[in-house]
Amino acid sequence: MSDVIRVDGGKAVGTITIDRPAQHNAINYDMWLELGDAARFLAADEEVKVVVLTGAGGEAFSASADIKDFPEHRSTSALAKEYAVAFEGALDAIEAIPKATIAMIRGICVGGGARKIPWYPRETLGDAGYSPYARADPGPAHV
Q: Could you write out the DSSP letters of every residue in 76-122?
C-alpha cells in the first residue's frame, strides 16, 4: 500500500488507516483503488480475525471524496464511470470482508466516508467524539 492508505495485518486485529489528516482524510481516486486492495489483503490474511478501519489524526474518519481530484477523474462521462468503478469497488471490498469489521470513527465522517461503515448491527458507544459501528455477523452487510 502507500503512505496514505496504511495496512497492518499478520495478527489477530488488522487495521486499515486512511492517512491524510491535513485533508481530513479525504479520499482521491488512487486511494479508492488502494482501499479496495487493502480490504482484499486483510480479507485473505488468515491471521486476521477482526478488521478495524480508521482515519489518522483524530479529527476525521473521512471527509469523503477529495473534490480537488474531480477535474482529473470525473470531468467526463467516461471518467466518471471509471471513478465510480473504483469507488464502488472499494466499498464492495470492505463489505465483502468475511470477518468482524469495525469502523473506528473519530470526528468528521460524511459522504463516501460514511458509506465505508459496515452498518449492521449498529451500536453507538461513548461520548468521546467517536462512534464505533461493528458488524457482528461475518457475512455480507446489507444497507
A: SHHHHHHHHHHHHHHHHHHHT-SSEEEEE-BSEE-THHHHTS--SS-
User: For residue 113, is pLDDT > 70?
Assistant: no
b/e map 104-121, b = 16+ CB within 10 Å: bbbbbbeebbbbbbbeee
- Return the CATH number of the domain spanning residue range 5-135: 3.90.226.10
**Could you give the CA distance from residue 58 to residue 1 in angstroms, rounded to a whole number?**
21
Distance between the two ends of the chain, CA-based, in angstroms? 28
Helix (H, G, I), strand (E, B) or coil at 131: coil
Q: Where are the domains of the chain?
A: 5-135
pLDDT digits (tens, 9 = 90+) for 15-40: 999 999 999 999 999 999 999 999 99
